[in-house]
Amino acid sequence: MMKQNRIALGGLLTALGVGILLISSVLPVMKVGMAAAAGVVTAIAVVRLGIGTAALTWIATSVLALLIVPSKTAALLFAAFFGPYALVKNLVERHLHGWTQWLPKLAFCTVLSALLLRFSAQILNLVPDVLAGVLPLAVLLIDIIFVVYDVVFSKLISYFIVRIS
After folding, report:
1. Which site in 50, 85, 125, 143 is 20 to 30 Å from 115, CA atoms measured?
2. What whole-number distance in Å separates Cα of residue 135 and Cα of residue 142?
3. Number of C-beta neighbours around residue 40 at 10 A
4. Closest of 54, 53, 23, 29 to residue 39, by C-alpha
5. With the CA atoms of 98, 104, 107 and 109 taken in that order, what torsion angle do they form, in degrees rounded to the nearest 10?
């Protein structure tokens, strides 16, 4: 693919990612879902443009979303978790096979979930004090949901590779 086409596609994917994140402001109950959907855009960038350009697409989408999307929760979730996960997933699955892939992917999820929950609880005061004691259980629940997300994410990427590429 020519350099101009790669830049144009990266820009279009960035705009699509920001557009998806903007929807989270209109449908507030969909903040996590829209952040996850925007993560698919990063995966498309990985498949079509390679990991380097996909990283730039993730960074550009994150910066623009944090600047213009009213729902900072969705933008932060994308910037910190769902956006980079497509890059991490690609690297892990390229170098590891079978069940060994789950160790770094679950470590990524667990560490980032714990950091985001701690940040939400202590810095942003978004988690009530009553729930602060159950944050380890919340991380465990997030890990379980993450496994389902990863399987669905893999199926979406496979579908994209077969149908579009």
Report:
1. 50
2. 10
3. 19
4. 54
5. -80
